[in-house]
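Data card: per-record layout.
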Amino acid sequence: MFMSLECLPTANQKKIYENWTVLQKNNKERERVIKKREELIKWLSQNSRISIKSMMYTSLLLTEYNKKC
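The structure for this 69-residue chain is written out next.
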């Protein structure tokens, strides 16, 4: 089960690339969620029938969702 030294750079590079790919995917998803959140907050702020309390509650829910991402 011993890896030769020649294999280490390739294995490390592959792992780094896999991690980088996952990070890129997560960043794109985070950007999408943030954009949707901003659109919703903008819509809520423009709709005068929506109370401030419901806007704050919705913002809180979205913030909690973003923390999980």
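Known properties of this structure: The mean pLDDT is 76. The helical segments are 7-46, 52-68.

See the next section for split statistics.
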